Amino acid sequence: MNSFGYVFRVTTWGESHGKAVGCTIDGCPAGLKIDEEFIRREMERRKPGGEFASKRKEEDVVEILSGVLDGITLGTPISMIIKNVDVDSKPYEALKNIPRPGHADFAYYAKFGIYDWRGGGRASARETVARVAAGAIAKLLLSKYNIRVFGYAKEIAGISFRVENSEKAFEIAEKSAIRCPDPEKEEIAKERIREAMREGDSVGGIVEIVAKNVPPGLGEPVFGKISAYLAFALMSIPSVKGFEIGRGFDVAKLRGSENNDQMMLRDGKISFLTNNAGGILGGITNGEELVMRIAVKPTPSISRKQRSVDLEKMEEVEISVKGRHDPCIVPRIVPVAEAMVALVLVDCMMLQRLIPRSFYDRKGN
């Protein structure tokens, strides 16, 4: 399944080592001004490079092929392409018939009888570059309603980061090579990553995503919960193995009196004393900020020797994965997670007609 969304529907396409990757957005309202500089900045945030990321040199330049005229959306499908300019499949040739541990190679083989050995194909994190492009359009839509979505690393390699104010944390993290919001712990986390690199290994972590100014009432009862939709969106990202909202799994240790978000009147409006629910009650937004976290596994491509099976010879083998890989995918997964949350919010708002199908009136103004 390569499409996501009900009204604001995104389809991604392309393989990691193919000629390009891209996306098509169907359902974007007409009359939205497209800020290409903003899209460029969002793509920059996910780009490889630097000490703690893959050395694959992709420019990740987005070319808009359709759906936009003179910088304004037409209401027709928006198609975007990002060309792959630094592909090197040679390190993978020796593994053509050998699925890599921790990757989707064997699962794809079990399902289709074939898999793309060139870096994982569709299962590669390279696919997420198209999500960030689509998410940038969604963020532009949300900005018209003063809704912001942002994220940062909450933990890397077992080192937890202190966050007192989410917006300040985001500002600090955006200046960090590992998106760490806690300057006191940053060097410790970096050294953990370097240690894993020296040993031919990798590390994982936790990412926190926050959405501010989300209106109350988004989501549907029972099977249409926005919490379930967000889980679906974020768990679809490669390497994500866990999801929680608000206090998450910590609520298992609390009493009801500790966990309940009590209510009060402030300036004649209902507000909450705490936000343990993370902005969602009964699967519907309550007007508080959305707070969620994802657990990100260690990058499966490591140079340490591991056991696998040669599918052609049907014999056990020992392999070492070569190529250019992130020792920790946490920093680069942050903008991907933001994109998926933005896509969910736009889709839910359009489902409830809070965002019109066109920002023009019938006279085209």
Key descriptive features of the protein:
8 helices, alpha+beta, Chorismate synthase, AroC fold, FMN, five-stranded antiparallel β-sheet, single chain, globular
Structure description:
This is Chorismate synthase. FMN binds at residues 122-124, 282, 297-301, 324. It catalyses: 5-O-(1-carboxyvinyl)-3-phosphoshikimate = chorismate + phosphate. The mean pLDDT is 94. The protein has a single domain, classed as Chorismate synthase, AroC fold, CATH 3.60.150. The chain is globular and about 70 Å long. It has 365 residues and is α+β, with helices and mostly antiparallel strands. The chain has helices spanning 36-46, 105-112, 128-143, 166-173, 183-198, 226-235, 256-259, 330-351; strands at residues 3-4, 9-14, 20-26, 62-66, 68-69, 72-73, 78-83, 148-156, 159-160, 205-212, 240-245, 263-266, 269-272, 280-281, 284-285, 290-296, 306-310, 315-319. The protein starts with a strand and ends in a 14-residue tail after the last helix. The strands form six sheets. The protein has a five-stranded antiparallel beta sheet, with helices on one face. A five-stranded antiparallel beta sheet has the order 9-8-10-16-11. The protein has a two-stranded antiparallel ribbon with strand order 5-6. Strand 2 (9-14) and strand 3 (20-26) form a beta hairpin. The protein has eight helices and 18 strands.
